[in-house]
Design a protein that fits this description.
Number of helices of chain B: 11
Largest sheet of chain B: none
Structural class of chain B: mainly alpha
Largest interface: A-B, 51 and 52 residues
Shape of chain B: elongated
Distance between the termini of chain A: 52 Å
Number of domains of chain B: 2
Number of helices of chain A: 9
CATH superfamily of the largest domain in chain B: Winged helix-like DNA-binding domain superfamily/Winged helix DNA-binding domain
Strand content of chain B: under 5%
CATH topology of the largest domain in chain B: Arc Repressor Mutant, subunit A
Oligomer: heterodimer
Radius of gyration of chain B: 19 Å
Number of strands of chain B: 0
Distance between the termini of chain B: 18 Å
Order of helices and strands of chain B: HHHHHHHHHHH
CATH architecture of the largest domain in chain A: Sandwich
Order of helices and strands of chain A: HHEEEEEEEEEEEEEEEHHHHHHH
């Protein structure tokens, strides 16, 4: 065949391949989790019935004894369905994560393979998660939003409908919704209505939550693990809700933390994190506009039109090329594509009218994802291209910031 | 040769088993092992376009979602290619045959075609690729798949027929029609004509002769 070997394959950069690989590994784990849920439906139904029976027995016992409140969690062979009672909070240690939940929170913990899926029905949970290493990810599922944990401390607030509020105080998490993903790092928050924002910008937490603490009294529960399906077992402690827990004191067999912990608002992090959040907020406030007016056209149509122009040469093409990147980022939320377009722009239109703006947009996209080497590198380049301006100063600050 | 195939087969089976137990390292291994080939095939079918990352991701996610259905009757790579071809077909059908070329592709095509091709020839190759894919946009998804897998990706007609799930005769016909359409486009496009010069024949009658010769050779190879 004469055309074989005549069409060169555009190689994918290591960064793009790594991103794709991460998404695939997470997606594959999710697919497996879904299958496990489907295939174990019968067992799950049995577990649910058992939970209901044990909870019912507990309630009857409590009524007979005249106690204050029923226990919040009962023994379950596969899953724990923990609904915090009206007057208390819970702290559960599942071995590879500590989960604290606020008033009226309801969530289910399952263990597909070596991963953990915390499916929230409503309410607010705080998590401390150790590094996962090669284990499957820990996923907090709030409606159609998945928060994939990379090893961190964060809270997820879910109203049971469409609003999800994630605040990260340590490490980073990946949030997947509607096939789009975004990494939220320490000092940042993500809201389903606003996207990624600085933690300081997110406003006060509706329901402050202590993410660490020691419950007053504990009750043993079996956390669902592979042991329940023939592999290994774990025991966790949850507070006995019959004792008021506003000021949490006491000891816990697994959570060795004797300090008295009272409910605190979600911390904003260290001064460094605060400074970082401020810089990112200022960066976000600098407007980004396409260089070409696109009117009310749909973004994809606008890009199709601009693409025709971008294939030419000269200032018109430069403006069109840059505008494509702006639309990809701001309208379509496809930051990876926007970065690729900007990289191509920088190669093709060095010194063009939108050259500095393109460099700045690169800084904005990369640094809002994470203040890492990519961010610092982009910021350093921009700071040297455009010194003395407000954006240049922000980039200069970002280029010297340490990692999250 | 046989021993190598058997080893590869056993390795594939073991790798799939590990993937099915949810081992992330196995997922990564399978992706790394097959990503270059799947990406190259998708690229040759669709040309460089901005959705390539998503398409590669979709293809592999579908692979992992359906991995339990792999019966080990076909080789794993063929099975994965079939999934990738389905992803490409759906993409072409959804896009109404129009593939928006990635603005990066020109640059990367230039880089990739550098080497011994200087200046004008490199530009010609770059423009030629672009014009070829514009011509392919006018084809039906099935014809485009058959043409690109056979003529650009270098697969035999029998292999293409298996991948697209149709008969060899139907595949051959699709390739023939696609070639005819490409040559028709080349008649009014000097850049495309120049690019496909090794294939180009001054009138459409000769094109048919050229195609027949080519396919006969392929079929002879397959028969042997």
């Amino acid at each position: 065949m004469k055309l074989v070997g005549r069409i060169p394959v555009e190689p994918l950069s290591d960064e793009r391949l790594t991103n794709i690989e991460r998404r695939i590994v997470a997606g594959a784990a999710d697919a497996l989790a879904t299958r496990s849920r489907e295939s174990r439906w019968g067992t799950f139904a049995f577990a649910a019935v058992t939970i209901a029976l044990v909870a019912g027995a507990g309630l009857v016992g409590w009524k007979l004894r005249g106690g204050a409140e029923p226990p919040v969690v009962a023994e379950a062979p596969l899953t724990i369905d923990s609904a915090a009672s009206a007057t208390s909070s819970t702290m559960i240690d599942i071995g590879d994560a500590k989960i604290s939940s606020e008033l009226g929170t309801r969530f289910t913990v399952t263990r597909p393979s070596s991963g953990v899926v915390i499916a929230m029905a409503r309410g607010k949970v705080g998590l401390e998660v150790g590094k996962r290493g090669d284990r499957d990810p820990l996923i907090v599922r709030a409606g159609d939003t998945d928060v994939i944990v990379i090893g961190t401390q964060f809270t997820v607030d879910y109203d049971g409908h469409a609003n999800v509020d994630v605040r990260v105080t340590e490490g980073k998490v990946k949030i997947v919704r509607a096939q789009q993903s975004v990494v939220v790092a320490a000092g940042q928050a993500w809201q389903s209505t606003r996207g990624t924002i600085a933690l300081a910008e997110a406003g006060p937490s509706g329901r402050p939550l202590a993410t660490t603490g020691t419950p007053t009294r504990t009750a043993d529960v079996v956390i669902p693990t592979e042991a329940n399906v023939g592999l290994r077992d774990r025991t966790a402690k949850v507070p006995d809700a019959r004792t008021p827990t506003t000021g949490i004191t006491g000891s816990n067999a697994r959570n060795i933390n004797t300090a008295e912990v009272t409910r605190q608002p979600v911390p904003l992090g260290t001064p460094h994190a605060q400074l970082q959040a401020d810089v990112l907020t200022k960066m976000r406030n600098l407007p980004i506009q396409p260089a070409v007016a696109v009117g009310n056209l749909e973004p994809t149509r606008s890009i199709a039109v601009l693409r025709e122009t971008s294939l030419k040469t000269g200032p018109e093409a430069s403006a069109a090329f840059y505008s494509i990147a702006v639309l990809q980022h701001t309208k379509l939320g496809r930051s990876g594509d926007a970065i690729a377009t900007l990289d191509a722009y920088v190669r093709r239109f060095r010194g063009g009218a939108e050259y500095k703006a393109a460099l700045w947009l690169r800084v904005r996209i990369k640094c809002l994802q994470a203040v890492d080497d990519h961010c610092r590198q982009a910021a350093f380049t921009y700071a040297h291209e455009d010194p003395g301006t407000r954006a240049g100063e922000l980039a200069s600050t970002l280029s010297t910031m340490t990692s999250d | 040769m046989r021993a190598v195939t058997a080893v590869a087969y056993v390795e594939d089976v073991m790798l799939v088993d590990r993937c099915l137990t949810g081992e992330p390292a196995a997922t990564r291994e399978l992706f790394r092992k097959h990503r270059a080939r799947v990406h190259a095939s998708l690229f040759r079918v669709l040309g460089g376009n901005r959705d390539m990352d998503d398409l590669l991701q979709d293809a592999f996610l579908q692979v992992f979602q359906s991995l339990k259905n792999w019966r080990a009757e076909a080789s794993l790579s063929t099975w994965i290619d079939r999934v990738a071809v389905r992803v490409a077909y759906r993409y072409l059908s959804r896009r109404g045959r129009q593939v928006i070329t990635d603005p990066m592709s020109d640059e990367d095509a230039a880089i990739a075609t550098s080497g011994e091709q200087p200046g004008a020839r490199r530009q010609l190759a770059r423009d030629g690729v672009k014009r070829l894919y514009l011509a392919l946009d006018a084809l039906s998804p099935a014809a485009r798949l058959a043409f690109t897998l056979h003529e650009i990706d270098g697969r035999s007609l029998a292999e293409v027929a298996k991948l697209v799930g149709s008969s060899q005769t139907a595949t051959k016909l699709r390739v023939w029609r696609a070639r005819k359409a490409v040559f028709a486009a080349a008649e009014t496009d000097p850049v495309l004509r120049e690019f496909i010069a090794p294939l180009a024949i001054p009138n459409s009658g000769s094109v048919v002769v050229s195609f027949d010769t080519t396919t006969s050779r392929t079929d002879d190879k397959e028969a042997s």
